[in-house]
Structure formats: structure tokens, C-alpha cells
Fold each of these.
Amino acid sequence: MAWQRKILRVNLTEGSCTSEPVNMAWAADYLGGRGLGSKYLVSEVDPGVDPFSPDNKLIMATGPLTGTPASTGSRYVVITKSPLTGTIACSNSGGFFGAELKFSGWDMIIFEGRAKSPVYLHIENDQATLESADDIWGKSTWETEGWIKKRHQDPQLRIASIGPAGENRVLFACVVNDLHRAAGRSGVGAVMGSKNLKAVAVRGTLGLDTIKDMPRFMDVVGQGKVALAENAVTGKGLPTYGTQVLMNVINEVGALPTRNHRQVQFEHADQVSGEAMHEPRKRDGKPNLIANAACFGCTIACGRISKVDKDHFSVKTKPEFWGASGGLEYESAWALLPNTGVSDLEAGTYVNSLCNYYGMDPISFGVTVSAAMELFEVGAISEANTGGIKLGFGSAEALVAMAELTGKGEGFGRELGMGSKRLCARYGRPELSMSVKGQEFPAYDGRSLQGIGLNYATSNRGACHVRGYTVASEVLGIPVKTDPNATEGKAGLVKAFQDITATWDSTGLCLFTSFAWGMPEVSMQLDAALEGQWPVERLMEIGERIYNMERDFNLRAGLTGKDDTLPDRILHEPATSGPAKGMVNRLGEMLPEYYRLRGWSEDGVPTGETRQRLGL
């Protein structure tokens, strides 16, 4: 079965922890993780709720393959109504926390209400208690993890926590687990902070013995691992360079957003790439990268472990950052470096560590800083606003200073913590926010890649690459190569990627396996692990059902088809260089077909026929 069939419901207002069975009829239709967790949220939360109200709920959910021998079966998700976007939020993380939660006997935790004072949840198998977090409120995620392990005298505890950013309700605060893995986007950490919930600490020794047909499951899992090892991306590129393998690739195709998307190529991309992380530094002869790392059960090991040069200006007087920490991934490297015009790899690595330390999304942070840099350049803000800091493109010193201020909730950092949409609107230049539905863009330009632009515009959680990663097709040729500059067929491509991803996020598997696997490989693993039959057709329908359920929640929350758009810069300012020079995103050519393929009305509302077909 793979599900543990148990949910832990934590009422923070009452201080109670109770067990209840999983609704297995829902599990049959929504699988787990993103799908099943979102089904609980939309069934229990009014879409019009203020995200920081006690009536909003926060859900941590695993998938049925989380904690199994399946490669990358580490994933869990955090689901809530987003304070950044007002949409449904589902943020995915790896590491070891998700598997440990499953091993303790739970598929999901539902947090409701608000604690009167700071607390953390301690789980040891079927025992769950709320403990005082007064002594760690205000502490970083790193300090929090160490304190909790010491208090319980258990170094094997797996911990997910928020830092000061979540406590201060930075709208892009995240939930950090295992020190440098994170449910990073959409402000889920800010909701956790609004509930006075500092951390969740889990110790599970029950294991997982509910797989339907273990011999068959191990056979198909073994086949999947071979496919991952033999694939150029999952067997070579990601283990060697991590996601940073993409920096030079995306720059070469002219899709690397630079200086708040004013350009599409960065002249110093090679200095901040995955290859550069391997190169010896001039000062001490040591590379930025010291090791790669894997999440639970992962055979890819794309994680990066880095050390900043301790004589670098950013950490020279900060010994706590001299040790090894999570290194730059492609998205964080892009947001913190090319998009701000900064070419200092060490500064980017340090700021990435600060984001983990304070608990905030480096993508939204970096894009918001880049918007502030443009506001500064055009004179909309000045040193009087920034506390005397010259916030110009290319300034590593300004980037570091803003990360520290934002994480602490001090000075101009309080304004950066609102995100780029609110920041730019406050200073009269809303068009400078590179966001959709209030969430900042990831590291691909929608003028150079038409499909990813359509995906950004229609993503249920705002601009997001991992809701429909058409880059795989448009750049890497996976599963087939499509013309990045063409609009024909992109509506169908985006819909297919979005539906597949919704299912993938519900299994407990990492999306990176999709570089080597298709839905048939996922189907075989689920079919061996779970009750019933799980053919590809059923899985595709589950993905479509999840996507439409999320869309329905957003519409009831007040969003409309008018929110399915892109910034004027992407629609009207042509790309300045590269293969797509002179081009803009042609959203208007793709959106009507996308709506039609989705079974939505002309204004983006699922029709009655679509709702009936999907059982919504």
C-alpha cells in the first residue's frame, strides 16, 4: 500500500495532537503529496481567508513512494494559502525529513489555529507533543536544529524549521529542513511563523512495510536506477555539476535573465557557473565546491556542499560561516548573481547560506533585490531609502548587506521582505516587478523560451519553472526537441508538462527523475507499491484533476483569467541578444488554445463538463 494511512492533526490553539485515518477515497483520486494535501486544504480552508489568519491551515504531506527504496523517494510538500500571491501554495523539499515522517507512521500533518506562544512539534513514532520554543524564537534555522537535537539528546532527529524571516513574516520565507534543503517558494515559512510554530522534529523507527508486492517493486525500482545512471543528465551532468550545469547552457541559448530581465545573457556567466565552482580559487588554490550530496534514497546526488573563502569580505568576521554549507543551485545562483549583475561567486555562496540561515527563498529574494537595484538606478529610490547603501547592479557588497537586513527584518530589508510586486508598487514602478501573480520569476526568460513564458503565466502558484518545466523540451530535447522560439504546439506541451508534474509531485519522487523516466516508469513503481491498478492514463487524469482543483481554489480566492499574464517587459521589450534577439513572448497566440485544451471558458474558468469529468 505504501501509505501509512494516518494523519496527525495538530490544533495549535488548543495545544492538541490527534490521529485520524487518511481518506483513502481521496487518495485514490489524488494520490498523496501535492494532490492529497491540496485536497485536504481546499476542503477545509475558505479560499478568501487571510493567509496569516488562524483559520488558514498549514499541511506537511508525503507521497506514497516517500521513504521507499525508490530512487529519490525523499520528497515532502508544505501546502497552505500563500501570503505572497494569495493563491494555493505547495512547496516541495527533499533531504531526509519527509522519509523520517513516513517512518514515524504518518502520511501527513495538518496544522490549524495559532499557538499562544512559540512552540515546536516533537514526534517520536506515534507520540506527538507540542513543546515550548521560547528559547529558540529569534534563532536561525541552523541554531534551531542544533538546540532541538541537544535538548532531546538525539542527533538522529530530522527537523524542519523557520528562521527569523518566517517569524518576521517575510512574504517569501521558507521552511528549511536538514540545514540546507527547503520548501522554498510562496512564503510557506511566513504562514508557519504566523502560527507561532518554530519547528517540527521527527524521529521514526517504525519503517515502512506496506508495499503491495515488494519483489516486483524492487525489480522495477532497480530498472529505474539503471535508467538514471545511464542518462546523460541524471547520470553525469547533475552528479558532476548539480543544477548549476545549466548556467552556461541557458546563457548560450540567450535565455538567462540578467539585471532584472533587461538582458537575456550575462557576460560573466562562466565565472558563476557549475564549472567555476570546481575551479581552484586564486587566493588559496581551493575550489568553492568541496562535495556533492544526496537526499534520502537518491542515486543522482545533485546537491552541492561548498565553503566560502574565509578571507572573503562577506565572511571574514563571521566564523560561523567558515564551515561547509549548502552550495549554489542553478536557480539561487542565477537570482543572486546574473540577475543582480554580480559576478562574485563567493558572495553568492555566502548569500545563499544566509537564505538558509534566516529561512528565505533565494529566488524571490534575488529577484526582489534586482528590482530594487533598478528602482535605485532610475531614481525611484535613493540612499535615503536604503540606509546609505548604493544599491547598484553589480555590487556584491550591496547584495550581501540586503540579505542580512532582509533576514533580520531591519532597515530597507523590511521593504524587500514584501517581495518585488509590493515593493515596486510602493515606489510607483509596478512594471519593474518580474513576477506573475506576485511570485518572482525563476531563471529562464520567457521571450527566448515561449513555452516557459506560457507556463509562468498559467502556473497556479505564480511564476514557477517546476510546475511545467518546458525547458526540458525547448532546450534539452527531453522527451522531444521543440523550437524554443515557436508558439505552435506550446499550449499542448505546457498542459502536458503541468499535468505530469502535478502527478509527479504527488508520488514522493523528485522531479529530476523525469529527465530519464517517463510516466510509464512511474506507473510501474506505483502499480507494484499500491493497491489497485495505476496505468498511465489514470495518472494523467490525476494530474489534470489536481491542476483544475488548484485553479478552482484560486478563482474562488479572487483571481481571474486576467492574472494569467506576464510583465510588460516580457511582452513588449524585445530580447537584446542571442538566438531570440528582437523577440517578445507571444502569450496572446498561445493562451486561447491553452484554455481550450484545458476545457476552460474563454476567461479561464473550468467548464461544468470539465468539472464533472474530473469529479470536482
Amino acid sequence: MPARLRLIALLTAVLFFSLGFVTPTGGDLFEVSRNMEIFGRLYTEVNKVYVDETDPTGLMRTGIDAMLAQLDPYTNFYSESQIDLSRLMNSGQYAGIGIEVGRREDKILIIEVQGESPADSAGLLVGDEILAVDNVAVAGAESRTVEEVRNLLLGEKGSRFSLSIKRPGEPAPRELSVVRGGSEVQEENVPYFGLINPEVGYVELSGFMANAGNEVATAVRALRSQSPELKGVVLDLRGNPGGRLDQAVEVSNVFIPQGELITEMRGRTSDSRNKFYTLLPPVDTEIPVVVLINGRSASASEIVAGSIQDLDRGVVIGQRSFGKGLVQNVRPLSFNTQMKVTIAKYYTPSGRCIQAIDYSVRNPDGSVGRIPDSLINSFRTQNGRLVYDGGGIDPDIVIEKASPAPVTQALQAQNLIFDYVSAYVREHDSIAAPRDFRLPETVFPDFVAFVEGQGFAFQTHTEIQLDLLEKSLGEEGYDTPMAAQLEAIRTKLEEQKSADLARYRPEIEGLLEREIIRRYYFHRGAVEASFDRDPELLEAVRLLGDSDRYQAILAGE
């Protein structure tokens, strides 16, 4: 047998035995053994006799990925190279420069600059196009993916590299020398905390990496120190995708007494069944708390929101959370590879599972649906309030999110707000403080002229449906008799669309205002500006200023 085929057979055998971390029994053992033998033989024969030269590693990776795709999106295989890169990233030896990049056609643009970062110090601006990193071209004919550019920007902390950029409005590229990382660029779980007013503090939690609980505790202590009048804290979990389970428990522990159940894992094996309690003395168990969530609050965020809600420790405001109640564990495999696998579902203190999608049941086309209402059960919080499983965390106070108007969506999709603000920043050295800045009256007419100069056009959902109707009428021979009516409708729609910029002026001005503030004051400025404009935050401040209403909600009245 050729050496390559002996290696393939060996790898197949190793793969079989490496899957033994959960030992099948009875019929399962026979099925696993039988199918592994079939798979090993098929894999060997394909690589042995297929008409073209095969890539055994790529072929195996395709098979693994396809198999795991039948389970859920969170069960994944990681090659040795992927693990090595992750270790480097988490070791603190590698760092970036504090920017986020995105693609527009064949251009790589800077779409976010972190304040007080190497990028900020080097004078990089949102809207700059990256042409080359250390003389490696990334745009035009040498166009790279966003991920490739991100990796080029990463390097040993403190190392210097060259960056070639093209700034809109400037004829020639700029050549910059930038130093990576250092203490200026930090992946913080709490990117911002501060006082909305002397009585209400605000803590933004964007992730659940190591030290999240300590960062939240530090923020709450600082807020109490800054304002003796503090009467409430807003914990903002909107858009937080989750992270480490132990940090979810520690974050909850900031407000919840020691020894309380925060979440429970329930899986098939003994090591996937566990209960997690608060272990530390809390920072404050009395101060009123409001937790903000939305449809992108997931996993660990839902553990925190669910435990605070179930234990009646605070009020949840916003929209229903994502509904990810699955727990993953990393399992070592052969040849320095790993698998992150879903091993359990987690449950809140009242006993509800917040998982919203049942991946074990597939539709005929392979898709999955949300858990049906008929399978949703009711539970009660510590004070006896009704709560429900099967669909994430339902807020105590729901703030409906209005969908942007079609014209606004089109302006964003075509990057016209982004481009206009980039030009605005080049012409204005500074603006007022975030909470004081208001869009000058001259900006909106100037923006409309800019948009029209760009040949702005968009298609509404109504027009799409009208096109489908016209096609259907044509197929059935009714298009000619209906031509005049269809044209009249199209004319009326165009008249309405031409007035949409003026009709949705407040919505568009809000986006322009927020984008301008973000360019000058970065993330901190955007957060502070939202204190007087954000519907969920305004509702939270009102609630924390009304003790009777706050207590009535927690009492279930």
C-alpha cells in the first residue's frame, strides 16, 4: 500500500477512536462502528482511484464541515493552524492598531477608528482607503478579503509597519508609519460607563471575555463613588453576543447575593449537567437595575438578563433576545485539532430554557424553525410573575423598534451617509460636545444636493411587487389591457419616492447626526449622544425615576 494511502487509513482509524469521548452504547455503538467503517473505506477509495488528483486534507475538511452543519451553527471543527492563530491572538503577543475595515467593491475602507489608539495617533480617519500594508497591495487588481487585510494589520505588539492610504479629496496617497498595539488597544468587555444624570448610571457590556464580571463590578463602584445621589443603574446588553459562562455568572453576581442559582446546564452526559451559583459577595443588591436587551443579545447576555428577571432583581427593557440557550465545550482531537461542540442547554433560575430554535428537527429543505407556541411553557419568577421559555428573554417593558424607511435603508446601503459625513469631517475641524451637538440647519439641504449629485435611486418593496404583478399579467395575457393602470401606479410611486427625502427628514437627520458625532468623539461620544436620543435609554431613565412603578413591575402588579 502506498505511503499516502497508509496515512489516510491511519487518520481514519485515529478519527474513529478520537470520537470516543462520549461512548455510544447498544445500537448506537453498532451504528457508529458500521458507519465509520463505510466512511473510512469510501474516503480511502476516493483518494485512491478518483480520476483527478485529490486533496485528502481538503476533502476531509469538507466532509467534517458538512457533517457538523447538520447539527447547529455552534458545533465547529478547528484545524491546527486555526488554533495556533487563536492562541497568538489571545496571548497578548499579537495586536492591531484600533481600526475596523470593510469592503466596498474593490476597495478596503476604514469604517471604525478606536479613540486613543495607534490608528487615532497616526491620524487615520473613517473613510480612508487602505492601499497597502507593509508594501503588500490590498486594493484594486491585488484586492484582498477583509479577513486577509485584518491579518496583515495584526502583528507583534510594539512592532512598526508601513501603511499606504488614499484619503477622499486628496490627489496623492499618504504613506504612514504605525506602531501596533500596546496598552492603548484593549479588548474591553465594558467599553464605556458613565452617568446619564446624577441619579442614573450607565454600564455598556459588549462581551463576556475574561474579567467581564470584574469590569462591571469596577464600573458600578466607580458610578457610586462619582455620584452620592445615584438611584439606579442601566446595564446595556444590546448587541452583546455572549461569551464565557463563568463571566455571565460573575456579572450577575454584581447585583445578586452570594449563593443564588444563576443558570443550570442540562445535557446527555454527567459532565454536561451542572448548576452555577454566585460565589462572591455582591457589589450592590439594593440599587434598582434596568437591563437593556434586543434581538442581538444572546447566550451569556440572556443568562444575565434571565437571572436578573427570574430573581426579580431588576427590570428588563427592549426587544426579545436572540434565544441561544446552547452550551459549547472544546474537545481535543488528534493531531492538535479541536472541536467546539454543543453539549447542553442552559436554563434560567425559574427553570426555563431560552433556546428559540430546535436544531434537532429539520424541515424537508433542511432548514429549521423556531420552537412552536404549542411547546412553550410558563414559569414563575421569585415574586410569582409569569415568564415563558422557548423564545429568548421577553422584556418586562417592550420598546418596539421601527424599521427604517426604504429611502433611509437605500441611503445606508449605498454608503451615501458614510460618504457625506467623510466629506463633512474634512471641512470641519471640530463640533460641539456629544450631548450638545445638534445638526446645523444647513446640513440637510446640503446632504440632499449631495445625494442628488450622486444619482441616487432606489426601489421600494411596492415596486418589486408591482414588477412581479406585471410579469404575471404578461404571462396570462392581461398586460396590454392593464398597461395604462400600471403606468399610472408607477408614476404615482415615483412622485411619492421623490418626496421621501423630505418626508423622512427627521430619521435621516438622526443618522447624519450620530455618524458625525462618532467621527469626532468615537464610541464614547456616540454613547453619550444616545443618552438624550435613545428610546430604550429614555424609558429606563423614566422608570428609574419612578420608584413606585419600578417596584410595581417587580411585584407583578
Amino acid sequence: MKTINVYSRLACAALAVFLFLSLRAAAAPASVPQSFKVEHGQFLLNGKPFQIIAGSMHYARVPRAEWRARLRMAKAMGLNTITTYVFWNVHEPQPGVYDFTGQYDVAEFIREAQEEGLYVILRPGPYACAEWEWGGYPAWLLKEHGIVVRSSDPKFMVPVHRWLMRLGKELAPLQIGNGGPIIAVQVENEYGSFGDDHAYMEQIHRDILDAGFTKAQLYTADGPAQLPKGSLPELPAVINFGPGGARKGFATLHKLRPEGPFMCGEYWAGWFDHWGEKHHTTSAQKQADELAWMLTQGYSVNIYMFHGGTSFGWMNGANISGSNYQPDVTSYDYDAPLDESGHPTEKYMLFRQVIAQATGKTLPSIPAAPVDAALPAVRMSQAVSLWKSLPAPIHSEQVESMEDLGQAYGYILYRTVLSGPVKGDLTVDAVHDYALVYLNGKLAGTLDRRLNQTTLPVEATAPHTRLDILVENTGRVNFTVAIRGERQGITKEVTLAGKPLTGWEIYPLPMEHTDALAFAKAPCVGACFYRATLHVKQPVDTFLDTGAFTKGFVWVNGRPLGRIWNIGPQRTLYLPGSWLHAGANRVVVFDLEGAPGRSIQGLDKPILNATANPLP
């Protein structure tokens, strides 16, 4: 009898395990090969019409620990697809050196999307735009003088081909034809806004195919007016536009591509911010009404952005209009439906309602949002001067750019000695992007690319005067043909009173290991690093208030968090709780015009619309 009971229990246990695994398998996305294609002018998923309701979210802009929570928020808003760019520069920081780990494990991001029941549209570029540093291109490309990016120039296309082949190894297995969630792959990105070199576009198309992206639908995306310049006849074309552009945009698409399919590849649900300009917000109700119209017409749509996140570290890009340089802030909140720290907004609720009505589906419950908390102010009690932290210099008769010296981001210092006395205009041609000029260690003035400043009157009265020019890379331009000249630092020459200056000591300052600096409890004024210890009982999301500082950068526990600048509009930096740990946390601030006694604190809400805040 006991034996029978044992076998009965085993049988019951086995049945329970079987039922659990069966239910789990039923809930999980299919991992068997499926099909997604365009046929008869419409998208077909496994042979049946499929309306794409997508939202953009970029893995590199969201803390890895929060990927799944943000994806669940996307599902709860009614999205069936997530769209993401791939940023080449974070994956190949040096030629042939690849990183697909941690925050940059894009394959894991895509797998998590599938596990949450979402399909994926992949935008591998190699050019991304996206208000991302140099549009996603790695800075080392510019070490090759004469290179012409976004063209068939072999100096460009050879590394492009190598990169796409490597990316294919990571992501081609995740196409829908292999059982993965990737239903579509974009060829290049809005090329019609840049040029009309169809031979170059065909070359990128071939590289995408050679990389193994043959089991998902390929397509191109452009603005309606730019579509003829950027599209390829053999591929479907989708259109990108902002609020108010739906009816006219789709009318143009019907005219240019009457056979379809009909999709808005980017519906701009917000906008991004530049330093020194206003914070952008948009009408949630007007956008919800326009989204409703598109969906009820049967059109597919991708909301850009569903969740903007943060351009952590040095990764903000910049725009340029003529000679007007406009660097982007660190926050990529974008006034998106899901805000920077993952909270649903009014726009989220309206879009969710619109999607539920258009599809007739009961949507999942909205998950609990993360908790944002304030943290007490801490005094930056330790400091060290930049001038006491310089590395060994590199001697060069002529100035050289960051890229010439193998540097991608951060700051760079140029030093020479003037034979005096001498008086005249110091011309720095061309400075990218912000420079501080010192004579014998005293600040003589600044040059700001935003303001088209290249000349500063100086007077050196001593027989020998040390000239220092400290230059910040504020973010390479990521849009228009200007991207072809985006070397950083001093990119041409320096003259004083019309005469070229030579004989330079150059100090690359990528600022990658700030924790190793010789901090001490001593006052520091000017270009200084400051350090404090932030104690937390339990890690929570917070927003570091940087209003006590002027211009520089912040690191937390060695992680590059983002930029600070007291000209606004951003005054807080999003600090994910997953980047903190219980107990002591190191906060380092680099301030170009620092002063002792300043503090930093965590707020429970961001400040993204601050006005200029000049400090004494």
C-alpha cells in the first residue's frame, strides 16, 4: 500500500510539473519559425493581415535592470511591437573590439521583448541619427583623414561591412523566420534627408543581406517628401512625420507607393531639447486624436518615442542649422508617453485608450510604476584640481584633434608658451565645441561653438606666458551633411595676432577613471573634480539636482551619468536605483568653474524646464 502511495504521489507531482510547463509554454511567445512579409500591399504575419502598433525604445537609453518593466508598460499601452536602433559606437569602441555585454546586450533586450509578447523592428543603420552622439558612428572612423561617411567611399564601407557582419552574428538568429521576434529590419535610416546616392543605398542593402538578415522584412524609412531620394524600388517604404502630418503624409505615400504597405515609421510623439533653449512639450490630446485616425484607417504606426529614456554618459548628439550648433541635453524624456524614469503620463493613458478602442482588445493591466525618491543633500567635501590631475602630454608642432590621438569623448587640453609681450586676437579655428582659454593659469575667456565664437582678445605682458586651451566635446552633430566634419577639439589651427601658434603639448582627457584621482579635503576653485558619498538605505530612482554647479559632468559609482550646464533647460540627472547600492555611493562632479562648499541632492521629480542659472 505504501508503494502504491509513493507511486501515486510521484504521478501527481509529474502531472503538476507537466501542467505547469504546458501553461508556461502556452503563455510564452512562439519560438518556432514564422513568417512576416509584405504581400498585396499589406503586412502579413503567418499569412494573415497584421497591423503594426509599435513604439520606439532604445536599449542603451534604459538601465538594463529596467528593460523588462518598460517592455511590460509597452504591452499594457497596447503595443504589439518595439522598435530599436542599434548604436554602432557603443558596440565597437575600437576597430575590431566589440562589446555586447551588460547595458549593450542588444540580443538580450530583443529576447526579453519576445518573452513579453512583443515583436521587434530592428534599425541597424549603420547610421542612426536619434539625437545620439555622431548618429551612432564610432569616433575612430575620423582618424582616417579624407573619409566620407554615408557614402560608397571604401574607407567608410569597409568598416561598415565588417561591423554589419559582426552584428548579424548577434541578431540574425533572432529574426522571425528563425523563431525570433524581429519582424522587420530597416536599411540605412532616413537617407532621403541626407542625399540621393542610390548606389550607396544598394550597397548597404547588400551588406544587410550578407549579414544574414534574410528572414525578416526589409524596408526603408524617410519623410514623405524625401521618400524618392532615400527609398529603393525593391523594398517597401514607410514615412516619418510629426503631429499634424498624418493625412498629408499618407496621401503622399499613396501617391508615391500606391501598392502599399502603408505605415508611419516614426510618429513623433514629442521632441528633444537643446542646451540653452526651451523644454519641449506637445499636445497629448491632439496626438491621441491623430493616432486614432491612423489606426482606424488600418495604417500601421510606430510611436517615436514610446519611452525616450536617457542619453547616459557622453552620448547626446547635436543638431546644426547653417553655422548654428545646437547640442542636446542628456535627458531624452522626449515628452514621451512613458517618462524618463518609467512612469505613464497623460499621453500614455490617452494612447492606451485609443489603441484599445481601435483594436477592440482588452489590454493588460498597467504595471506598478517605479518609485522616485528624494535623497538628502550631501556636501562635495573632497576635491582635486584638473591641473594637478593631468596625464603625460603628447608633443605636436601642430594642434591635433581628439580623433587624431585616438580619443572619442571627454575633454582635451592644448598647451604652448607665448613669447611676449604680445597682444592681439587669439583665433581658434575651429573649436569643437566649447573652450576655456587660460593665461598662466588664469581664465581669460571662453569660446562657445553654439555662439559661433572663435576669437578672443588676449594680452600677454610677460616674456613667457603659458597658454592653455581646454576643449570640451559637447556632442558631435548627428544630422545633415555636417556629420562629415565632426572632429573634436581644435580641428584646424590657432593664431595669435594673425600668426600661427606651434609647439604644443596636448593632454587627452577622456575622464574614464575619475575614482583614481587624488581627492583631498581641501578647497578647489576653477576646473575641479569634487567627490561626495551618498548614503542610501535602499536603492531608489532619483534625480540629482545639479543646480549648484556650472558646466561639466557627473559620475556615480564610476558610471558616467551625464552632462550639467547651468544655461538649462535640464537641471537634474536621472539616477537609476539599479545603479546604486545600499550604503555608500560615490558621486563625482567635474565643474569647469567650480567653487568649494557646493552640494548635490536627489529629487523625486525631474527639472527639465529650468531657466539659466548663473552662479557667482
